[in-house]
Amino acid sequence: MDINKKTILEQLEKILSHSSFANSKVNGRLLSFLVHASLNDEYIKEAVIGNEIFGSFYDPLESGSKVRVYIFNLRKKLDEYYSESSDKNQIVFSIDKGQYHVRFSKANNTKAPLSKKRKTIIMAIMGLLIGTLSLIIFFNEDKPEFWNDIINSNFSTTVLFGDLYTLDGKTITGEIGITRDFSINSVDDFKDYLKKNPHMADSLKSGAYQYLTRFAPYCSKKITRYFSRYDLDFQVKLLSEWDRTNLQKENVVYFGQSKTMGLLKNVLNESFPQYEFNNASIIRSNSIDGNHSTFTDVVSRGGKITDYTVVASITTQSGNSLKFFLSDQDCGAISAINYFTNNDSIKAFYDRHKLGLNTDFIALFKVEGWERKGYQMEFILIDRNTN
Questions:
Q1: Burial code of 138-164, b = ≥16 C-beta within 10 A, e = fewer?
Q2: Cα–Cα distance between 360 and 23 in angstroms, integer?
Q3: Are strands 235-238 and 91-95 parallel, antiparallel or unpaired?
Q4: Quick one: CA dihedral 51, 56, 59, 62, positive or negative?
Q5: What DSSP state is assigned to residue 385?
Q6: Distance between CA atoms of 119 and 122, rounded to whole angstroms?
Q7: How many CA atoms lie within 13 A of 117 on its CB side?
Q8: How do 292-296 and 205-206 pair as beta strands?
Q9: Confidence at residue 138, expressed as pLDDT on a 0 to 100 scale
């Protein structure tokens, strides 16, 4: 029997009519989408699957693991189908772990499936062994120093993304739309602008929508995968929708530009007053001689980017933890989260700078490279909070 497109589609119809799929429309749509995409040799991305299957209900920020959960369940449904099927001439659909492409093979080239009862018993025993082993590893594994306080915390955790403030009004083309002004980053900034320019009050208003730059989906995916290793539950929010009264009631991990920090900027300045954050630049005062050092981002015409990136860790008086990943050019936050979700590099960083588990610090890095061609991150300096 040849494995051709017609045969594969006939097998798809058989599977979709099975009770495992007939009672689950989402699993049916998902399998059908993946099979057709695989037959057409299309490159299948997680976001494409999410939008195709879940439509407007899919949000990559808030539902980063939704697609992977459904793929995991789809594999289980396929296993269930083939364990109950006695057709020796059927086509076997399989999806490798970590992949979305469907492989097609002949049933007679595979081992005879186990009975459902026997398979259930074996899976239960394996699950018990794996679960026990995982618990042993988890409780004996050294928690990464940078995240230790959050992983072992009794506080809930929120990951915040700094969204950029917009204005509604006439655009440069003369049409009505959204405008972004680098000097207006909050409602208070907008009010100050209108005080100086009262003639604009009738033509401008706060934008109905904020927006994020490309660091957000990458950092969201990275932190989700990392926290899942420690079974750490957390929520994702935009800074504009975050309730600031939770500042001392939950752990916070902030990603974004310094100018979008809002209240968090005051908290960071209070812990490290020697730092001043401006648009695409950072000024540090030396507490010993009073001299100032300025670190300014550079974006060349040739596309090379130099971004000065800040990573900070603060514990509030209430005992909750605040983590900061500040980058005005995106690449800094992306490089920093790569570094601080690698346990080997975290350990090396803490050992090199002799940091304790509960040490508050602010570290400055220089990230250089060309857009979409990789970046290199260089350590510049570190300051500890000795208060």
A1: eeeeeebbbbbbbbebebebbbbbbbb
A2: 53
A3: unpaired
A4: negative
A5: -
A6: 5
A7: 0
A8: unpaired
A9: 47
Which tokens in the block code for residue 100? 């979305």
Determine contact, residues 248/316, Cβ cutoff 8 Å: yes
What pLDDT, on a 0 to 100 scale, did the predictor assign at position 112? 46
Whether residue 124 is predicted with pLDDT greater than 50 in this model: the reply is yes
Please give the structure tokens belonging to residue 261: 């920090």
Q: Give residue 136's pLDDT.
A: 47
Cα 382 to Cα 147, 148, 182, 356, 385: the distances in Å are: 18, 20, 28, 14, 10
Give the H/E segment covering residue 38.
helix 25-39
CA distances, 258 to each of 90, 112, 254, 325 (Å): 58, 59, 10, 9
Q: Provide the angle, in degrees to the nearest 10, between the axes of the packed helices 5-17 and 25-39.
A: 170
Token look-up 């290199």 returns 376
The residue type of 6 is: K
H helical segments located in 203-342? 215-228, 263-271, 331-339
Q: Which tens digits make up the pLDDT trace of 40-55?
A: 888 777 777 777 776 6
pLDDT above 60 (res 109): no
DSSP assigned state of 201: T
- DSSP code at position 329: S
170 forms bridges with which residues in the sheet? 176
In angstroms, the CA 37 to CA 48 distance is 11
Using DSSP, state whether 127 is helix, strand or coil: helix
Q: Summarize pLDDT for 250-308 with one digit per residue, the tens.
A: 999 999 998 888 889 999 999 999 999 988 899 999 877 778 999 999 988 778 899 99
Per the confidence metrics, is the pTM higher than 0.90?
no
User: Which of these, 362, 300, 303, lies nearest to 336 by C-alpha position?
Assistant: 362
- Locus of tokens 């979008």: 260
What string of DSSP letters covers 50-90? HHHHHGGG--TTT-TTHHHHHHHHHHHHHHHHHHH---TTP
